[in-house]
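Hi support team,

I'm opening this ticket because the web form for multi-chain structure prediction keeps timing out on my end. I have pasted the exact lines I submitted so you can reproduce it. The total is 718 residues across two entries, so I didn't expect it to be a heavy job. Is there a limit I'm missing, or should I split the entries? Thanks in advance, R.K.
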Amino acid sequence: MTYNEDTIVSSLHSLHDLSKALNSSLDISRVEEMILHKTSKLMRSPKVLILLLNDKTKSLNIHNALGFEPSELMVHTFENIQPFDHCIVHKGSVITIDEVLSPADREIREICPQLFEMLFAPLEIQGKAYGLLGVMGRKKNFSRIDLEIFCSIGSQAAVAMENAGLYAKLHSTFLHTAEAMAEAISSRDPYTGGHTRRVRTYALQLAEKLGLNAEEKNALRLAAILHDVGKIGIDDAILRKTEQLTAEERLKMSTHPRIGARILGYVDEMKAVIPGVLHHHEWFNGSGYPDGLAGEQIPLQARIIAIADAFDALTTDRPYRRASTAVAALDILARESGVHFDPELLQIFRALQTAAQAQ
Amino acid sequence: MTYNEDTIVSSLHSLHDLSKALNSSLDISRVEEMILHKTSKLMRSPKVLILLLNDKTKSLNIHNALGFEPSELMVHTFENIQPFDHCIVHKGSVITIDEVLSPADREIREICPQLFEMLFAPLEIQGKAYGLLGVMGRKKNFSRIDLEIFCSIGSQAAVAMENAGLYAKLHSTFLHTAEAMAEAISSRDPYTGGHTRRVRTYALQLAEKLGLNAEEKNALRLAAILHDVGKIGIDDAILRKTEQLTAEERLKMSTHPRIGARILGYVDEMKAVIPGVLHHHEWFNGSGYPDGLAGEQIPLQARIIAIADAFDALTTDRPYRRASTAVAALDILARESGVHFDPELLQIFRALQTAAQAQ
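Hello R.K., no limit was hit. The queue was backed up. Here is the completed structure from your submission:
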């Protein structure tokens, strides 16, 4: 069989598009979405599956899928995957379901007969298989070129998923480390309270509702985690005092947003995070600190964190008072609407928390 | 012109290999190395160039190259790159040097005539060009398929470089943030001293000399940055005391490695970092804390950090004494060889610092 130049150029083009698409993001869910859709298109198959190997249980689990009815995905775990494993590791190329299942795998054959029209390509990184990419194939209807392309999809999908996974892991290490350190700083006692984590959660709930984009949410998340980092510069005596602070002590305490902004100022990539840290003690009526900003002069990040911070403070035990209930805390915040807090944001937050309480 | 199946399968295979190779690492220098070598092989060209656009100066600079003589790379900046820019942005495909250079670009033609046998493919991300990939081409000797493959290489190279760049940026944000926070914690005063940064530098110099692998160096780097994070749990009164500590105060002070390990214990991904943090105050003769480990029972990370930490403490001003010179500090450390410090490591460190002083 021979092909003209156009056919080849078009195949090369498809593969080029594929690789560009699969690697164009380090966001794991976008990468998987892309894998499913591109595979479906290039293999002219409406049904695509990503199966991942669970190293501990040695089973293959359906991780993501396109075009299947829920009922078809009922069997979502494949035990006894030695035959899969064998084929993946030793052949390293496309295999059909018939090659994969041993005659003993009756159960799967019976429950899910349509699987028998599937092709699988290994997802492997540096010779180690960690899953399979499957398409519903028109059996015996694939050319050598189709199989070559499918194998290429599998191998590129594996690489793209691996990269996105590495990025996600680094990101989570970063956030968790910042959170553990921030928590230790804000409480001067390692990780007892979880205040940092809760403020971050409340802030992101608001951000979700406001429809902030991914970049804005990332910056807000970090600002929420790091908002009290400047407390490192406040003396123990003030920080741990359970009675009311004197005017002088309050003045010292009120330097913490500037100290926090200064610490983060040493990190170039933290520019987007500083507004929330520097201004989370501004009041909506202009009577807060450090700059006495009012209304929408106060960065959105800071207005969100102010609400999240106050709500968490009210709903947790402090040395000098017991926690309020969520309902009582929302009432207390409401009295400060337009005074301390942004009224619009507060209304949205109230609705969110009321709904959460009702569940 | 027609081709048989084998030719096509082999082209597809090359492209598949390429994409797998280019994306198989998020380490920018490995990615670039791979781009240069794979391009050279696939395009059958011994000379390959990566040119990057400097957005501010609007010039193209030679960023990396394979197979060129140093003299050929003398002209390493191309000013006046509007014609490049034009071609890249508006054509988005392979261009020859003749299309790129305006007739006025005499200077480049004269200085570097061999450039005229080059082909360029744009490096672009989401429609924005940030550079060119160039190969020394046998003019008019490339088939349409070659051009298609070259274009694909360019586009995949761009994506791989972008991903590696994003990963590197996140990694540096993480390290810088950890460093800024650690510095603030260890000095209870935001980023005055740079102790954290210097300990990290000394520790990594030792690691380099010892031939630790990338993973070990990463863990050591973080442990060096975070070694004193547990000081967050020590009272101001003890931390800031300029006179000798009492026995009771020393006891409290000596809890900081455990507190640090506990803080990092909340971060799953930090397991590899804890040994350095927990044991950086162990002594080689077993008389240190918290566990009184001796000799090689003390994790390597911790033995390295102990030397780096002590050397930096001696060579910087403290409230209660002036800095020693590097030479004097090395003598002081030498007296503690086998007592406080690992003799072998100390000898290597001494040689490193002596060499650094001699420069």
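A quick check on our side: The longest helix of chain A spans residues 144-187. Let us know if the file doesn't open in your viewer.
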